[in-house]
Amino acid sequence: MATITPLTTARTPDASEPANQQAAPTPRPRDPRLDFYRGIAMFIILIAHIPGNRWTGWIPARFGFSDATEIFVFCSGMASAIAFGGSFARRGWWLGTARVAFRCWQVFWAHIGLFVFIAVCMAALDTYGNFEKSYIGSLNLLPFFNDPAPQLVGLFTLSYVPNYFDILPMYLVVLALMPIMMGLEKINLWAVGAFSIAVWLSANPYIIGLGPNGVSLGAEPWSEREWFFNPFGWQLLFFTGFAFMKGWLPKPPVSKLLIAASVAFLVIGAPFGSWKVYLWVKAASPDLGEIIRPTYEMTSQWREKTDFGLLRYVHFLALAYLGWVVAGEGGKRLIANGTGVLARIWGVLLAILTKVGQQSLAVFVFSMALARLIGFALDHTDRAVLTVAFANLVGFALIIACAYGAGWFKSQPWRSKK
C-alpha cells in the first residue's frame, strides 16, 4: 500500500562465487512498510471471505472504490521488484525469466492445491454432514462435481476458474508479463509504461470510447462469465507498485496540497463508491441522496472491480499516498520508539503484521481455506456479536501461526549451521 524506495535485501553468498562477487555492500535494513501494509491486507482478506461475517461491514471495501485486493496486488508488485528485479539485473533476462517461471509454477500449484482442498472439504461436509444447505452449491461447484472430467482439464488449463478461486490465476498471469516488462526496460521506460497502459486499456476500452467490452479470459466453458479479476486490467496496479520499488517512478513529495487532495477525494468519493456510505448520506439528506443515486449506473464501468476501473485506481493511489505519508521516510513512524508499555505493545503488533506480510502467499492460501471452515462453524451458531468476534479472532490467531510456521520452515532449521 505504501510507496517505498528500492531496497537491497540480504543474500547469503554462494561458496562457489568468486571472492570479489561475495564482497557485496552491506545491505540496508528491510523497509517495514511493504510487509506492514501487506500484513494488514491479509487480515482484511480473511474477514472478507468468511461467509456471513458481521465484520465485513467494516472493511475498506465498504467505504470507497478500492479494497484489500488493491493492497495485495500493489504490494505484490513491490515485493516482486525486490524478489525478481535483482535477478534480472544480476543474472540477465533469461535467468530472470526462469526465476519468474518458477514462481508461476509455485503459484499455479498453490491454486490447484487450494481448490482441491476446499472442494474435498465441501464434499465431505455434504456427504457426511447431512446439513440443510449444500456446501458444494454454496461455492457454485456443482458443475465440477456433476461433470468432473472436462472441468479437471479446465481447472489445469485455467479455462475453468470458479469464483472464490480467481485471485491466484490473475496473479499468475500478471507475473508472466514481467519478462516482457523487463525486456521493454532495455528500450526505455516509456515503452514499459506505454505497454502497461495499452494492456489496461484493452480491458477498459470505454476510457477511449471503444465500447464496454474489453479483452478478458473466460472463466467457464459453458457460459460467457469472465475471470472475476481480469489480469489485463489488474496488471496496471501491480506494475505501478513494481515501478515505484524499481525506481522507475520517483517517490512522491510530501505535500500539504497532495495530502489535502487525497483526503478530499477519499471523503467526497465515499458515497459514490460505497453503497453503505451512500445510504448514510441519503438518511441524513434525502435530496443529496437522490442526486448521488444516478451516478451508480453512470460510473459502473469506471469503478468496476473485474477490469480494475479507473476510479478504483485513483482511489487506491490516494489511499496509498496517505499511507506512505503516515508511515514516514523509511517507515520510521512505524518503528516503535521508547520503552513504555504502549511502545512495547506496538512493537509486538508491528512484528506480527510484518511476519504475516512476509509470508503472504502461504497466509493467503491458508486463510482462503480457513475462511470457509470458519463460515461452516458459524452456520451452526446464533452468529451473535460475541460469537462472530470470537470466530474472527480465532482466525487471526491461526493465520499468525501459519505465518510463523511458514517462516520457520523456510528457514530450514534442520540444515547444519557451521
UniProtKB/TrEMBL annotation:
Signal peptide: none
Transmembrane segments: 35-51, 71-89, 101-125, 164-182, 189-207, 227-245, 257-278, 310-327, 359-378, 385-409
Highest taxon listed in the record's lineage: Bacteria
Biased composition (Polar residues): 1-11
Annotated stretches, region: Disordered: 1-32
Pfam families: OpgC_C
InterPro entries in the cross-refs: UCP028704_OpgC
Keywords per UniProt: Membrane, Transmembrane, Transmembrane helix
Entry protein name: OpgC protein
